[in-house]
TrEMBL record:
Keywords recorded for this protein, A-Z: Repeat
Domain Nephrocystin 3-like N-terminal residue range list: 3-111
Protein name: Nephrocystin 3-like N-terminal domain-containing protein
Pfam family, one: NPHP3_N
Organism: Candolleomyces eurysporus
InterPro entries documented for this protein: NPHP3-like_N
């Protein structure tokens, strides 16, 4: 949460240029503001600049046409600093209590956590319980859009459709959606696996029915993908380093850390693009497509021979 208010302020200035001068003035008037507490930063860098911009009429035309501005905060429960999370909610509600007509709204998603839920049980807040919400139609729309896009750029799929007709057919797509069982993470990962350009021994048309045999969840997909590189030199060191690093490193950084050549890192990772993001430049870090891969790699009961034991941190001393 240490950069939460300044991140909001930066996005506020980009979305509403009329608020930028008020943010800049707040920093000039209070040189120590960026080192102050979250409550003060939220008031001076976010709420007050928005209110000032609204008062000057900068937002009138936009709000009349489209309604209030919306700030979306996804996964608030993932912030470990519970006190600052509580502070944010308290400051937000206090601002709206004093300024009920300001054209600003917050949409917050979160698991049910006591320090969050207890503060949101407030007449200013509209709560929605998504436990019983079915995301099937949303996932179907997501996959249709992904496959439509892939058809336009994948010559193999394009050639198959020209000779054999529609792909995937409605029945296969419906079966895939049922198999995904409401998980967007699983849907995204399965789609990447199906259209993965690295897999040369099979086509997307071959891989789609194969995904239906994978257990719901990501463990089978992770193991299947990792097995492509498991016999390559330095595989375990590279995967363990990526899983254990507190801060992601670029390919050159991983190579330097492990005392190997960058091409050896690329050789392992190029087969794993369905689950690991490989940057296009040497400056950008290698990152996991989803944090659940780290959970998989650090749990021996789930990952088996692919496990990255937490004790691997000790090996870094020798590499360095």
């Amino acid at each position: 949460m240490t950069k939460f208010a300044t991140t909001l302020a930066c996005q506020l200035a980009a979305a509403i240029p009329g608020a930028a001068p008020f943010i800049e003035n707040a920093v000039k008037v209070e040189p120590g503001l960026l080192q102050s507490g979250l409550a003060a930063q939220l008031r001076r860098l976010v709420f007050e600049p928005f209110k000032a911009a609204a008062k000057r009429g900068h937002l009138l035309a936009a709000t009349l046409l489209k309604g209030p501005f919306l700030v979306v905060i996804d996964g608030l429960d993932e912030c470990e600093d519970r006190q600052d999370v509580a502070t944010f909610i308290d400051e937000m509600l206090d601002f709206f209590k004093k300024n009920p007509l300001v054209p600003l709204r917050f949409l917050i998603t979160s698991r049910v956590e006591q320090h969050i839920q207890s503060r949101l049980m407030n007449k200013q807040v509209r709560l929605e319980n998504l436990i019983n919400y079915s995301s099937r139609d949303d996932i179907l729309t997501f996959l249709r859009t992904c496959f439509d896009t892939e058809r336009l750029r994948n010559p193999i799929i394009k050639a198959f459709i020209e000779s054999s007709g529609e792909w995937p057919v409605k029945a296969d797509l419906d079966t895939l959606v049922d198999h995904i069982d409401g998980s967007f993470i699983f849907a995204s990962a399965l789609f990447r696996y199906i259209v993965d350009p690295v897999e040369e021994l099979s086509t997307p048309m071959d891989r789609l029915p194969h995904t239906l045999n994978m257990n719901p969840g990501l463990d089978t997909l992770y193991a299947q993908t990792l097995s492509r590189s498991k016999d390559l030199p330095h595989f375990s060191d590279i995967i363990s380093a990526i899983a254990m690093l507190f801060k992601p490193l670029p390919i050159t950084g991983i190579a330097e850390l492990l005392g190997i050549e960058p091409f050896e890192v690329i050789r392992v990772l190029v087969n794993l693009q369905a689950i690991i993001h490989i940057p296009g430049t040497d400056e950008l870090p290698v990152t996991l497509c989803h944090t659940s891969l780290r959970d998989f790699l650090t749990d021996e009961h789930r990952s088996g021979l692919f496990v990255a034991p937490r004790s691997y941190h000790l090996h870094f001393r020798f590499f360095v």
